[in-house]
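Input set for joint prediction.
Command: fold jointly, output tokens.
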Amino acid sequence: MKLDKNNKLSKFSLFATKDKDNFNLMLNIKGIHCASCIRIIENSLCSDKSVVKARVNMSSERLNVTWKGPRELGDKLVSKVIKLGYELKPFSENNNSLRDLKEEYHLLKCIAVSAFAWGNLMMMSVSLWSSTTNNMGPATQDFFHWLSCVIALPAIFYSGRPFFKSALSALKQFHANMDVPISLAVILTTLMSIIETIQHGKYIYFDSALMLLFFLLIGRYLDIRAKEKAKESAKGLLSILEGTATILKDDKQYTVSISKLKKGDEVLVALGENIPADGIVKSGTSDLDLSIITGETTPQYIKEGDGVIAGTLNMTSPIKVLVTKKTEENLLSEIIKSLENLERGRTKYIKLSDQAASLYTPVVHILGVLTFMVWWLFMDYSWQNALLHAVTVLIITCPCALGLAVPVVQVLASSLLMRDGIYLKKASSLEKLSAIDTVVFDKTGTVTLGMPDLINKISKNNLKYAASLAVYSKHPLARAIARIYNGKLFKVKNIKEIPGKGLVGIINNKKVRLGKQYWYENKNIMNSNTLQLWLSIDSTKPCLISFKDKIKEDAFAVINKFKEYGIKTILLSGDKYEAVKEIADKAGIKKYYFSYSIEMKRQLLENLEVKGQKVLMVGDGLNDAPSLAQAYVSMSPSSAIDIAQNAADIIFQGEKLSPVLKILKIARYSTSLIKQNFMMAVIYNIIAIPLAILGYVTPLLAAIAMSISSLVVIVNSFRINFKKDLSK
Amino acid sequence: MNVLIYLLPLALFLGFIALLSFLWALNNNQYDDLEGAAQRILIDEEKNE
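tokens >
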């Protein structure tokens, strides 16, 4: 039954790139868990003599194969791995879910250089601090100063680049970010220290500049790593439409990449394949799983001449489709485009750290200038000495603590969440979450399980008959039966799936049918919100099997907790009144909207936003995607379709609703920690700035004060790991 | 104090080597797949018989 799908998968060599006489193919691979997986895959590939290199990357779940010889050989290699039981997908470069290691590595190099230089500078700085003119001659002091200068200059130049670059680009657009004061402090400190060195001065601050860079680079690195990790966990757009399709031309079958399909192509869609393009059915009948577009679980019957939509799943029999729109123009691509526009139009959220920076920068710089003016004009200091005092103000107020305050908390919070299968796509979503006052839930798949479950009682024997047939179908109701029944099955002969109707087969010489009601003469009126199947054995009276989409078991408790927090809850669905009301009552949600279309949902969220409410949207279907992009902050379960996951800020795993609550708790706690960190930075500055202005700060004092303030912030951030009620 | 003349350069030199070897490892993709590397030590080497 599943063979049809595998046949198609083995055309991945189309995606291989040619490199001299070798072909190289990069694949996404799923299902690697341990060392033996790596060994089995690599060995089976390398046992083929034409394979030059085969390497599995476990962290990024990628497989890289290089082989000599014809392109088609790749298909053989790929099917070898598939037969081992691993799921493969071609990997395309424009897929922006790729984790960019380059930037991370660049920052790591900067950290390494600054750490090396700082460590070695300390060797000299400590001896300078602990010496007096009595035990260190001026020549030795000069030698130490020059040596420090030689080590520090290239290191500052190299590892300061991430800050200098970002500061420059901010200044070009006439606004200041956190990197402007950082760069200014580092550059001024360095210049002053060089002048001091040349003038045989007493104090140099190279070590302070490097320490500043070192701590800030760590903050920056954590920030990037959290971002890239989140990116990696989010699936690439359109992955349903990546891959290949079989087209029919002059009675011959060709395999082409889906992105190259043209209007007028005839595509063969096998059982269990996604429809690759928008079009009309040329021949054949089948059932389509439209859940990706409508969110409805009941499949739709299609026949010749009916329109089909790309991305939907062909469930019962192979069909031939005439493509009417090329890939970039199909419905799915259009929705994705509109999502990107929404994303861009989203009101720009100002991060906490940027808010702090916009306050911090002018205050510190004005203080620096004032210090210089007062010492120079009123205290009759030489301008060099006045400048020295002004620069120490800049150094001591170093934004180390500020730079670490946010990323350390965020990295700890996101790794805490990651352990429970919650992935943040943007680190700033935590800050946003802590401010929400309304939660909007989608019904199907979010508050409910999204899978039909048996609700009436049927005899064990009947269930066995039903299950024996059901295992042969991809129909959601049939799959539900197969899922519920776990015992031995009957042998079935002459099994046939009739599109739009159901399954027929011979079991124990009896004709057994499982399918829709109108297959039978008995025309019982069915309840609108139950899903039903009928089972008949020979000519006995058909037996009813009904299903219902069940509410998640913890839904009521979670909604109740939200109420305790004073957060409003709203249920939103495209489903009919009765179905929505029933779930809303069970979950304890008072406000609910039913029969809402994609656009109406988005509109509702826009209206809430205009009213000034900060809304968290939780949804999983394509019909929720625009609302997810519109909302202040949004979440999607990992069972959601790729496009919804892409539009959402946060993705959570599991069949429960409680992660929504948990992430809210963590978001609130981590935001309070970040605010505490800012407070500590402020208190530190209130003590340190007067000392610097008065000129009491020596390089030793600066080093101690700066490192203590950074450490205090880090230690405070770690409190998130010890908060007890978070880990439940 | 004359010992500084060669001890200081020696210390710097050793530190510099450590820095270089780290940069080398980073540039040669040694850190690309930390999870995989941790698992690979469990793979027995194939015996050529």
